[in-house]
Amino acid sequence: MKIAEDKRPSKFAVFFENFAGKITWASGKPVSFLAAFGFVLIWGITGPLFHFSDTWQLVINTVTSIVTFLMVF
Fold first, then answer.
1. Buried (b) or exposed (e) across 14-36, using 16+ Cβ within 10 A?
2. How far apart are CA 23 and CA 37, in angstroms?
3. Residue 61: inside a domain, yes or no?
4. Number of neighbours of residue 51 by Cβ within 10 angstroms
5. For a tag site, which of 7, 15, 17, 35 has the least CB within 10 Å?
6. 7: phi > 0 → left, psi -120 to 50 → alpha, else beta; which?
7. Phi/psi class of residue 51: alpha, beta or left (left: φ > 0; alpha: ψ in -120 to 50)?
8. What is the pLDDT of residues 18-34, one digit of tens each?
9. Higher pLDDT, 73 or 67
10. Mean pLDDT value of segment 37-48
């Protein structure tokens, strides 16, 4: 029976794990919530400026979809 060799993670795996850890840490801070709230507030305030257009709605839909996807996966 062959004994499993000691495998070290690749440099990319180490980099990605560190990067993901920092993003997780940063996204849990109050300033992250305030930034997201501020973005939504500014988006809402600019509604009349853009006449509540389809493009205006598409901005918030696209941004929230991308952020949700990245946070989940």
1. eeeeeeeeeeeeeeeeeeeeeee
2. 18
3. yes
4. 8
5. 7
6. beta
7. left
8. 999 999 999 999 999 99
9. 67
10. 96
Run of H or E residues at 25: helix 11-27
Whole-angstrom Cα distance, residue 37 to residue 31? Answer: 10
Give a yes or no: residue 66 inside a domain.
yes
For residue 22, give both structure tokens: 């920092």
Q: Which domain holds residue 48?
A: 30-73
Are 72 and 56 contacting, i.e. CB atoms less than 8 angstroms apart? no
Q: How many residues does the chain have?
A: 73
41 is a domain residue = yes
Tell me if 73 is assigned to some domain: yes
Cα 66 from Cα 63, distance rounded (Å): 5
Nearest alpha carbon to residue 32 among 41, 23, 42: 23
